[in-house]
Amino acid sequence: MNRLIERDELIIKWLYEAAEISKKSFKQMISIEEKTTRTDLVTNIDKKIEHFFIEKINTYFPGERVLGEESSKQPFTELKGIIWIIDPIDGTLNFVKQKSDFAIMIGVYENGIGHLGYIYDVMRDELYSATKNQGAYLNGKQLEPVDDISLREGLIAISHRLMTSEKNDNARKIGRASSGVRMIGSAGLETTRVATGKLVAYIGASLAPWDIAAGKVIAEELGLNYTQLNGEEIDMLSHNKTVVATPSAHKEIIKNFR
Questions:
Q1: Which of 234, 186, 241, 183 has the alpha carbon at shortest distance from 213?
Q2: Bridging pattern class, strands 180-181 and 155-158
């Protein structure tokens, strides 16, 4: 991928600008809509931030495609060329209810391979970033590879949908096998907790490409495994039951779900 340094510098600049849009909205009347359920929300700020990124990408990198949570009405059928995968507000329910614990996420992929990943925890001013084969960073400081801690020895995050399902007890069994379960409600932020060793794993019930793209690049640069719950590779064209974990915890979790 060409112009990597330029891309990185521009993306970081845009992320900070987008964060200001989200924070200024706290003083405004936010328009809220339900997408699929009362807990799956979209706001006018989600749409405004995504439009902001699309305009920037079209200006600086014309011809490159954008897969965005709010603007991509037709599903992608292939991943040829350079694709920007954007989640303008990851954790919209938190954004609306708490004004915290939400992130802005960007992944840049080429022919299906992640080259750049960014998760910006807006209210903590923590920017996690990674470039393929060049390591992962938190606010510009390189992160160390994560220690390979077992499920038993660590805390785990599991999505609310899995933990409350009456049909399948596997998630609760895994929770009981760990040192404890913690929930944030943002796939990106839960991934950063695994990336910094605060959790040994995060399990998502049904993550879309924009929930996954940035975190996958970051996680893999730190020696973590990021796959579907059946152990197969992530399908970046659809929703996935996912797990990001240390190698040891990953092995235990996959065994339980199989």
A1: 234
A2: parallel
Cβ burial of 32 (10 Å; 0-12, 13-18, 19+) is: middle
CATH code at 4-142:
3.30.540.10
**Mean pLDDT (whole number) for 42-59:** 93
- Reported as a single tens digit per residue, the pLDDT across 113-122 is 999 999 999 9
What are the structure tokens assigned to 51, written together? 């439009």
Rounded Cα distance, 237 and 139, in Å = 30
Task: Name the pairing type of β-strands 136-138 and 126-131.
Answer: antiparallel
**243: closest CA among 183, 196, 200?**
200
Domain spans of the chain, in order of start:
4-142, 155-257
pLDDT digits (tens, 9 = 90+) for 1-36: 668 888 999 999 999 999 999 999 998 878 877 666
For 252, the token pair is 């235990």
Task: For domain 155-257, give the CATH number.
Answer: 3.40.190.80
pTM: 0.95
207 burial via Cβ count (<10 Å: 0-12, 13-18, 19+):
buried
Domains 4-142 and 155-257 alike in fold: no
218 DSSP assignment: H
Report the C-alpha gap between 171 and 23 in whole angstroms.
35
Residues present in the chain in total: 258
